[in-house]
Amino acid sequence: MFEKDACSTDDLNDEKMEYSSPVVIVRKKDGTPRVCNDYRKLNKVVVKDRFPLPLIEDILDRFQGSRVFSTIDLKNAFFHVDVNKDSRKYTSFVTHEGQYQFLKVHFGLCNSPAVFQRYINTIFRPLINDGIVLPYLDDLIILSSSFEEGIERVERVLSIASEYGLEINFNKSHFLKKRIVFLGHVVVKMVKSSPLL
């Protein structure tokens, strides 16, 4: 029920971990269960990573001049980033199968968004600087002025994603569209408020 590749029982069998957060089950939109950890107590005492997420207004401004848009949804995005070995003990949780700690960054931890945004910005830095890609957590927006340019840019982004082992959720990704919905806004050559909200 949880990503065992992202967890470990290493060095946990012979010692009792001093930290553990409760496990809770929530339902996804499609009704399937998702195993989550309740890190509220841990999040209250963790030193916050202040790496900034992009401002929505800045992202929307960067859409100006683009005519063709692609959005890529990264699957299990946080699980691409390793947890520092000294910090793993804080991610500990117990199930009926034993005690685990996360080897990869997990959602629910207050620093996960900042850590992942820094990671994804580093990977796509050249394309960000060239105005080709706008990463916002697990979403990548690819800006293009034409379909031909869009194809070339999507290929570049997919190549980099493959190089870093990023998994694409193709069911939630959209390619070479004249209209996209992004963070509550409909984007079509110019930005306007989304009627979907």
UniProtKB/TrEMBL annotation:
Q: Where is the signal peptide?
A: none
Q: Which residues form the Reverse transcriptase domain?
A: 7-187
On the tree of life, the source organism's domain of life is: Eukaryota
Q: Which InterPro entries match?
A: DNA/RNA_pol_sf, Rev_trsase/Diguanyl_cyclase, RNA-dir_DNA_polymerase, RT_dom
Write down what this protein is called.
Retrovirus-related Pol polyprotein from transposon 297
One of its GO biological process terms is: DNA biosynthetic process
